[in-house]
Amino acid sequence: MGRKVRAGIVGMGIGKVNGRAIDANGRAEIVAICDIVPEKMDVFEAELGRPVRKYVDYKKMCRDAEVDAVFVGTPNQVHVPVAMEAVRRDKHVLCTKPLADALRPAERLIPAAEKSGVVNMMSLSTRFSPNCDYLARQIGKGLFGELYYARARSIRRSGIPDWNLEFIQKGGGAFRDMGVHALDAAWWLLGLPRPISATGVGGAKFGPKGLGFWEFRAVPRRHYRQYAADDYAGGLIRFEGGVGLQVESFWASHQPEEFQVELFGTKAGGSLEPIRIYRTVDGAPQDIEVKLPAGPTAWDRIAAHFIECILDGAECLAPLRHGLIVQRMMEALLKSAKTGREVRLA
């Protein structure tokens, strides 16, 4: 491999966002793109401003000897097949969230990825956000003391995706789409404690009726009658050492839109959006709002770290194994919602 990482991008949705950051990094370039809709590739190729190889079959792209690394930006149901093919061809892999549409395929991928020796990484825009990075650094300095509880939520008023049926079919849903961000960021900030159990509720109150779709848009009945996922889910995850996390995700609701992670520590508490620190000094409460200066975006940070892991051998801070553990927590909470019982995590 040469001085630059030569990347292939699968999926012209979130793939374009990650692709722009990879291509903007001076140590990488996009050399190939893949999508089942050729017109989408034409648009992105024009944006890049140079010709790239275009594929409608991800297997053919993964066989391209000029591709060193693959970004997986497909619907949930195809994450593992694409990542598995990339790993099989000794390509480094960067995968959008969630790792998979279910637990079993996620568990098949991890041994293969780790045995191959390639860099395998999750693209997590909240974990790699400047706000999350700032809080993590303060936690590392001991500002919060012992973290013992967290709340994380992602709420939309009318935000069910209507541009791809896989979002609302089995393996999709609000919790795997949005809740994964809140869950992963909170788990990361808590220090990656070992999950013990999950108790949850969830279901679909809007989507199957044709309500709650993106920006209050009307969708045809042939679309929403295929609804087979959650449009809300929430519950409590218990971790080793008695740490608890309350997590919620709503694609549609009669509530204000919000994304938030809140931390409870013995020395201080805090929130992610915006960054606020709550503590008591000399017997008086302090509420501190932190405004970060402009800097690299989450996407820039993800791309830079992925490239650093490949070219410099840096330790990956978001391996696919983290995605597997988050998947286990998500699936346990959703199973609890279906069965009405607490689910233990091995």
In words, what does this structure look like?
By secondary structure, the chain is of the alpha/beta class. It has two domains: 5-118, 3-Layer(aba) Sandwich (Rossmann fold), CATH 3.40.50; 130-296 and 327-344, Dihydrodipicolinate Reductase, domain 2, CATH 3.30.360. It contains ten helices and 15 strands. The strands form two sheets. The protein has a nine-stranded mixed β-sheet with strand order 14-13-12-11-7-10-9-8-15, with helices on one face. The chain has a six-stranded parallel β-sheet with strand order 3-2-1-4-5-6, with helices on both faces. A hairpin with a 3-residue loop joins strand 12 (268-271) and strand 13 (275-281). Helix 1 crosses helix 9 (298-312) and helix 7 packs across helix 10. The chain is globular, with a radius of gyration of 20 Å. The two termini are 40 Å apart.
